[in-house]
Amino acid sequence: MMKKTSQIFALGGWLLLSGCGPDTPEIQIFSGFAQGTTYSVSFWTEQPVDGTHLAQMLDDELQRIDQVMSNYRSDSVIEDFNRSPAGTVLHDEIQQLMQQGLQVHQATQGCYDPTSLPLFELWGFADRQLTIPTTHDLSQTLSVVGLDRLPLDQTITTQVDPPVHLDLSSIGQGYAVAQLAQILQEHGIEHHLVEIGGEMMATGHKPDQQPWRIGVEKPIVGSHQINAIIAVNGTQPTAVMTSGTYRHYHDQDGTRYSHIIDPRNGRPVTHQTVAVTVLMADATLADAWSTGLLCLGAEAGMAAAETHGIAAVFFGLTEAGELHQQLSPAASQDQSGWRIQFID
Predict the structure, then answer these.
(1) To 10 degrees, what angle do helices 172-186 and 51-69 make?
(2) For residue 228, which of 139, 216, 272, 335 is within the disulfide window of CB 3.0 to 4.6 Å?
(3) Residue-averaged pLDDT of the chain
(4) What are the contacts of 207-213 at 24+ separation with CB within 8 A?
(5) 42: CB partners within 8 A, 6+ apart
């Protein structure tokens, strides 16, 4: 199980700034680079805001999270833990994330597991070079994978022997989105759209009372068309998180190997579910759920989503290669906070 860069984006671009009367506040946009990807914060408020100070606070928080949680940085706190001997205490903030991840881990029967980085590396996805492991190597790697190996039910979580290797790519961006949204709220900014690497959280509405509109790209190889539009009506904060398989994969001898690996058997998933979008108020959990449900696939994932009341959209391919969508019961019901429109 590894997190793929999402295919979600804000609709409107410069149009977000247009159509406003002389007394209508303008939307301000901050953007930049963080966590190995890009970010964008769009907001408006009728109260004066020190934009320079706010932008610095947002950037500082992103840099702080990056230094704590990014696997691509050898000097990050999480990479220090991954290299540490048994008994090393896990950073409090990471422990809190792991405890949230444990909820999704248990709800998906272990399909969501942020300790599965060794499997990702074993299959060559880290080096973008497919390597089909032997049964022995697969068995050996599986022996060091498993979120249940960490004593997360204790007040203090410590490294074990052999060590676990944590990877927060399936939950960290959602957490970072939530952290930026909290900073905006603390500054009295009630209407904002936060995006990091395609993961989004919308709160409030646009200055003209229209909802924030979020586009979901069609999860087909080579396609850049919009497949769905999600309008967030502003009655409650709504995170929109998507995981997909269609951009990161290897084809070999007529078989497609997805980079989404089922940590229960250590192998790439073989089902025809190509993407899952999750909508919920908690951006951190939404990020984890989108990955866990994608790992499960539509059949088992739909059952898990129904049991736990998760609003999810499953995108799958038929044998003929045609795209179809399935909505969980929570996503099918009339929603006051958001509305989904599919594009044919």
Answers:
(1) 150
(2) 216
(3) 88
(4) 207/20, 207/24, 207/25, 207/26, 207/27, 207/44, 208/19, 208/20, 208/24, 211/338, 211/339, 212/10, 213/10, 213/11, 213/12
(5) 10, 16, 27, 28, 29, 192, 193
Distance between CA atoms of residues 14 and 27, nearest Å: 10
Which helix (H) or strand (E) covers residue 239, if one does?
A: strand 238-244
Tokens of 144: 């060091």
Q: Bigger pLDDT: 9 or 66?
A: 66
- Strands 226-232, 238-244: pairing kind: unpaired
DSSP letter string, 190-225: -EEEEEETTEEEEES--TTSPPEEEEEE--STT---
Q: What is the pLDDT of residues 51-94, one digit of tens each?
A: 999 999 999 999 999 999 999 899 999 999 999 999 999 999 99
Adjacent-strand bridge partners of 287: none
The length of the chain in residues reads 344
pLDDT band at 144 (very low <50, low <70, confident <90, very high): very high
Cβ atoms of residues 88 and 157 within 8 Å = no
Span 279-317, pLDDT tens digits: 999 999 999 999 999 999 999 999 999 999 999 999 998
Burial 287-301 (b: 16+ CB within 10 A, else e): bbbbbbbbbbbbebb
